[in-house]
Design goal:
This protein is an alpha/beta fold and 302 residues long. Helix content is 37%, strand content 23%. The chain contains 7 helices and 13 strands. Strand 12 and strand 13 form a beta hairpin. Helix 6 packs antiparallel against helix 7. It is rod-shaped, with a radius of gyration of 32 Å. It starts with 13 loop residues before the first strand and ends in a 12-residue tail after the last strand.
Length: 302
């Protein structure tokens, strides 16, 4: 059933679901809304089962009588909250059951109204305020999820981009990380460490893809690489072992990683370059030189 109250020019009609088994009370609610300044499109059902059958409809507000033929009290409220989680729920209570309405607020309802103490103006204001509170609640939840994701990204970034560990004052390593598409964290990782004999190991890698799974795998590969370097594994063994680590830790066989590793001699007069799927870098001399692609071997995991 629908009603066509006088609308305000700046307020869009609200889709409202009235869950009320008493026909007289349902009629009264429609009359009160007709007197209010809130434009609504009302759908009336008599039971929780009927309300659940309309769960796919995007109702903005639900007026709920807690005494239904197939659910009573908080069972009715929980059923509506489960089936219409995006809707603002206003509970209708009897004169002798006001405490239940108060308790309903703690259980997820936006407001409660006492039958017999409601006029059109109060009902209209309650619907407006309930819709606004629901919107603010949704915004706060979205903000919270964003903050949690940002904190998780920051933790992963610290794992992907650790503090370089070396003693040579003639070496200066500068890093900057800028997330790519839509600021989604990816699987790019970096590390630099100097061994006890003065050999400097530098690593840049990228797990294909964007998201927390790729970032976590990047952290895993970087930590494994640093552990192997600190254990003084031969440079020629590092990437084959990383290949085995990736094969064990990746979520599917399609996942691969590109890696560039440089091993700089203690005298800083010699550099060995290992390229696994990573583009050949530039040699920054008086005139920058692009190293040949023939140096590049297959990516890890391919």
């Amino acid at each position: 059933m629908t009603s066509s109250p006088t609308s305000l020019p700046d307020l869009a009609p609200a889709r409202l679901l009235l869950v009320e088994d008493d026909e007289a009370d349902a009629f009264l609610v429609r009359e009160l809304l007709a007197e209010s300044d809130v434009p609504v499109d009302i759908t009336w059902v008599r039971s929780l089962a009927e309300a659940r059958s309309l769960a796919a409809d995007p109702f903005e507000c639900v007026l709920l009588d807690l005494g239904l033929p197939d659910a009573n009290g908080f069972d009715a409220l929980r059923g509506v909250l489960d089936s219409s989680p995006e809707a603002a729920v206003l509970v209708l209570t009897g004169l002798d059951d006001e405490q239940t309405g108060v308790d309903a607020l703690a259980s997820g309802a936006q407001d409660y109204l006492v039958k017999g103490q409601v006029d059109g103006s109060l009902l209209g204001r309650s619907i407006r305020y309930a819709r606004e509170r629901k919107r603010l609640d949704a915004e706060l939840r979205r903000l919270y999820r964003t903050e949690v994701q940002a904190a998780e990204n920051a933790r992963l970034e610290r794992g992907l981009l650790p503090q370089p560990r070396f003693e040579d004052p003639t070496v200066n390593i500068v890093t900057r990380y800028r997330p790519g598409r839509d600021a989604v964290l990816g699987g790019d990782f970096f590390d630099a460490i100097e061994t006890s004999d003065g050999t400097l190991f530098v690593l840049i890698g990228d797990v294909a893809g964007h998201g927390p799974d790729e970032a976590a795998l990047g952290v895993c590969l970087r930590i494994a690489w640093r552990t192997l370097v600190m254990a003084e594994q031969s440079p020629d063994r590092l990437l084959p072992i990383l290949q085995d680590v990736l094969a064990q830790e990746r979520r599917s066989e399609e996942v691969f990683a590109t890696v560039c590793m440089a091993v700089v001699a203690p005298a800083r007069d010699e550099l060995r370059l290992f390229l696994a799927g990573h583009p050949a870098p530039l040699l920054l001399d008086d005139v920058p030189v692009q190293l040949p692609d023939e140096l590049v071997g297959p990516a890890l995991g391919v």
